[in-house]
Fold this sequence. Notes:
This protein has helices at 5-14, 24-27, 30-39, 49-52, 55-72, 93-102. By secondary structure, the chain is mainly α.
Amino acid sequence: LRGDVQVVLVAVRSDWQALQHASAGLRGDRQVVLTAVNSDWRALRFASPELQGDRDLVLETLNCKCQALQYYAFQWSEHTALQYASHALRSDREVVMAAVTCDWQELQFASE
Length: 112
């Protein structure tokens, strides 16, 4: 049932960390991953490598992180969104600018 999209969607809506237990196919499903990321941006770490390289998804993740930081008024220094983005996106100027605008600590994962 870890491959059943309806079961997994209910689970990630309840707790984003459920994504880590979904089938590999569903960790690569944009709708499932986006649902988890919208619950908590840290879900990006459990997405498939293909989705970690999806520019639009990573930008959405950064937006979710920025909103969370503003809401909670603190930073998760041990977690960065760029850490889980593909190497190609760590070189993407727009993605890196979005990341560091929200949290300067993201700079450590940007490309040289």
